[in-house]
Write the structure tokens for this entry.
Amino acid sequence: MKVEMEALEKKQDMGFGEIARRKKTSWCRRVFTVKYKSNGSLERYKARMVAKGYTQTYGIDYLQTFAPVVKMNMVRVLLSLAANTGWKLQQFDVKNAFLHGHLEEEIYMEVPPGFNFTIEERVVCRLKKALYGLKQSPKAWFGKFTKVMLSLGFRQSQVFQVVILIHPKPIS
């Protein structure tokens, strides 16, 4: 866990400092999981720091949330269009997706228990990038993802915001 905290600080995803006036801190917890290979043997141990988003208050800590979810009917329509027009479909998984989104709001988090290494009494973590568990993490990640895809020449559907295509014709 100490390695993860140092990595977050090194990548400048968070910094240590004093809390700003009229701001409150969120709490976090550690989540430990064991990953197994397909044959059942041990692959690795995984530790992740997760924010306790339920401690956030609407209007103070965040103003909007967004969950990029596509409906099954839209998947069927896309598959039908792809089959009839010869489109190539591509799907991928982004590892640690939420950790790539930049936060617009100032979010402060208590230093996790057990991390007293050279940290004074009232020092907190100021998050610069999203963390799992925050209410605004999906919105921050999807905003960055969309920006990158549009810069690569893709187009976003005006009707279904989660559908991003590359096609020579305008999409409505």
